[in-house]
Specification:
Number of strands: 9
Structural class: alpha/beta
Order of helices and strands: EHEHEHEHEHEEHEEH
Bound molecules: 5-O-phosphono-beta-D-ribofuranosylamine
Distance between the termini: 31 Å
Helix content: 25-40%
Shape: globular
């Protein structure tokens, strides 16, 4: 399988970027990071990219008079690097339909909540205050709304009695690092079909060939 070419957009620490890098380097993820773009010049994720010899570019939204100019530059950098899938990994800017049209059904995002509950930012504090018993994270296609596109994969974690926003965020983040590489792998394998709001996952041909139910289960 030809590795899918990723453009990873970050604004901060880049731990999800790191999970993707680790997935690629371990051979679990059939992808190649063509470029990492940060809108924040001091984002630690840029150092992670540097440590792994990846192309990295800063495109600061502050250098542009409007969103259109910012997005045109992002698009240019992504296209120059041959990007096939745009991966938002803690990227803190909302993208407009002009940008999305340049990469139809090829922009994905990770959100640290079980959408459609708790879209937007500062979700962990809201979850603790609301008193939900479960929280989680969601990888979804990006559409013109905020955190509203079709859902690819989710993970659920419990909210514990002594949780605060920080401890809950840490528990969720560990699952983000598992589901984001998995979502990208499904796209690399061209196994996702968007049908309205639903994203269906096609089975692997060889998975069917090897399918078996073993009873009693293997140790
Ligand atoms: C993650 O919780 C992500 O879901 C959210 O921002 C955080 C960024 O984490 N959008 P990192 O920069 O990948 O470490």
């Amino acid at each position: 399988m030809k590795p899918i070419k990723l453009g990873v957009l970050i604004s901060g620490g880049g731990s999800n970027l790191q999970a993707i890098i680790d997935g690629i380097e371990s051979g679990r993820l059939s992808a190649e990071i063509a470029v990492v773009i940060s809108n924040e010049p001091d984002a630690y994720g840029l150092a992670r990219a540097r440590n792994h010899g990846l192309n990295q570019v800063v495109v600061s939204h502050r250098d542009f008079a409007d969103r259109a100019g910012f997005e045109a530059r992002l698009t240019e950098v992504l296209k120059v690097h041959g990007v096939e899938l745009v991966v938002l990994a803690g990227f803190m800017r909302v993208l407009t339909k002009v940008f999305l049209r340049a990469f139809p059904e090829r922009v994905i995002n990770i959100h640290p909540a079980l959408l459609p509950s708790f879209p937007g930012s500062h979700v962990w504090q809201q979850e603790v205050e609301y008193g939900v018993k479960f929280a989680g994270c969601t990888v979804h296609f990006v559409d013109e709304g905020v955190d509203s596109g079709p859902i690819i994969i989710q993970a659920v974690v419990p909210v514990l009695d002594d949780d605060d926003a920080a401890s809950l965020a840490a528990r969720i983040l560990r699952q983000e690092h598992r589901i984001y590489p998995q979502a990208i792998q499904l796209l690399a394998e061209e196994r996702l079909r968007i049908e309205g709001r639903r994203v269906k996952v096609l089975p692997l041909d060889h998975a069917l060939e090897e399918a078996a139910l073993i009873n009693p289960p293997l140790a």
